[in-house]
Amino acid sequence: MAKRAALRLRTFRRSQTYKFLRTLLLLTLVYTLIDVLHVRKAWTAEQEEAPLLGRERIYIASMLWMDEAVIRSHYGDALIAIAEEIGRANVFVSIHESGSWDDTKGALQLLESKLTSIGVRSKFVLDPTTHTDEIMKEPAETGWIRTPRKQLERRRIPYLADLRNLVMQPLYEMEKKGEKFDKILFLNDVVFNSDDVRTLLATRGGDYAAACSLDFKHPPVLYDTMALRDSEGHDPLSQRWPFFRSRNSRRAMKAGDPVPVDSCWNGIVVMDAAPFYADKPLAFRGIPDSLAASHNEGSECCLIHADNPLARSRGVWVNPRVRVSYDTEAYGKISPTPPWLSMWQSVTGTWSNRILRWSTSPWFKQQVIKRRVRSWQRTAPLEHREVGTVCLINEMQVLSPIGWQHV
Question: How far is CA 50 from CA 16, 199, 204, in A?
């Protein structure tokens, strides 16, 4: 038995199939080595230092909930640092908080007093309304939906869009007094520093409709993917490097260059302020309730890019050189200078991405959404229009007393 097995093995090793497989394996190993060295070289190449803050007028906007820990440990000091660098004449901070049951309000009151003491203008709204209060309200004409539970429930996305628009109100109040800003800097409840903000603002020399960081909670796994769409409109292929299905997005990520995307909102976002000052100002929104009723949803942070006229001419970009996180431990793993990604993670991530591209297709998932949109459009061809179909996902999201949930 053993002799027959050894004979078969020797015969196989002399065969053309074996020689072909051996050559293929060798070429694959060489290609992988060249690829990973190319990535390492690109990511370790010296970058031009971003210009100092203070050259542009920056409106800083944040919407916070249940964030006492990160505000006290990092966010507050980092915000003060960038506000001081921008300069009190060139910066305004707008923060909205509502319904937190930790001491987020106390942390924000302390932060507001510190900003005031250094002469930085700000408006902090600390709203006592909780999610439970919001859920128990009399349903309004919009923003509510009848769910499979046979209940009329408050939709999550229109609720968030309303809050984001409230954060923007001081911008319009100052515009009436003749004061305008160059950029809007949206800060999530993340750990970041001034270098991150400088680098993000300097993306493509400032030529963008919007630029985003990458955000991580458990590195190297990318955190927020709901609003992220690559240059072909696909959601991330994987939450691991190099993340994208689109060739253009994937190549830019591997080169460490600004990544062209259709949409992003990953921790920190900077947007050109011009569309917010248009005759019909750019604003956050949700998809219509009538479209959401057929089990569709779209993030307000994706729809804002779909609605932004500058997105088509100047583009939306992810700057992979800016990486933020949701706690200091995770930040320590992704913020240092390159290489932030190990060679092994680069190899396994690249090959898993390649295998997923070869073995899966977004077509089936997209067809479900397209059929629902077409059906919705047929019911009212003149009224039912949605430019943000790239943002749609097969979900229904409503508020809950402790956050939100799928139904």
Answer: 56, 5, 11
Question: Omega before 339 cis (within 30°)?
Answer: yes
CB 357 within 8 Å of CB 245: yes
Mean pLDDT of the chain: 93
Q: What share of the chain is helix, strand, coil (3-state, %, to 5)?
A: 45, 20, 35
pTM of the model as a whole: 0.93
**By the 8 A CB rule, do 394 and 368 touch?**
yes
Amino acid 22: pLDDT:
78
Whether the CB-CB separation of 316 and 264 falls below 8 Å is answered with: yes
Q: Rounded distance, CA 242 to CA 256, Å?
A: 10
CA distance 94 to 113: 14
Q: Where are the alpha helices (DSSP H) in 45-177?
A: 68-70, 76-86, 104-117, 131-136, 156-167, 169-176
Q: If you write DSSP's letter for every residue of 175-225 in order, what string do you get? A: HHTT---SEEEEE-S-B--HHHHHHHHTGGGG--SEEEEEEEEETTEE---
Distances (CA, A) of 336 to 32, 198, 227: 25, 15, 26
The DSSP code for 293 is T
Give yes or no for residue 17 having a pLDDT over 80. no
Structural tokens at position 273 = 């302020």
Tell me which residue of 226, 220, 259, 268 sits closest to 241, measured CA to CA: 220
What residue has token string 């006290």? Answer: 72
